[in-house]
UniProtKB/TrEMBL annotation:
Mediates the uptake of pyruvate into mitochondria. It comes from Glycine soja (Wild soybean). Belongs to the mitochondrial pyruvate carrier (MPC) (TC 2.A.105) family. This is Mitochondrial pyruvate carrier. InterPro entries: MPC.
Length: 91
């Protein structure tokens, strides 16, 4: 019980942005990857259904393309942050 009490009263507890900001920040790439996976599954459905639905296929393909681009931007930003930390540490 003391562990929970100390966490609740710490400067980085659930009542502050020090906890919620990283939590939501990490949820964004997970949500993006979920949308990409959903788009891939739905693309297959749009192609396999009879008659094929090319409009739905194009819709999901374009959505997946945008989500993959957003995910790549997130990875590049994380890599840039790591490089900035290394450069700052080397100085």
């Amino acid at each position: 019980m003391n562990i929970l009490r100390s966490f609740w009263n710490s400067p980085t507890d659930l009542k502050t942005t020090h906890f919620w900001d990283p939590a939501f920040n990490w949820s964004l790439p997970f949500a993006c990857s979920d949308v990409c996976l959903f788009g891939t599954v739905r693309e297959g459905f749009a192609w396999m259904v009879r008659p094929p639905n090319p409009h739905l296929l194009v819709c999901h393909a374009s959505n997946e393309t945008v989500q993959l681009y957003q995910l790549s931007r997130w990875f590049r930003a994380q890599r840039g942050l790591e490089q900035n930390k290394k450069e700052a540490g080397a100085e």
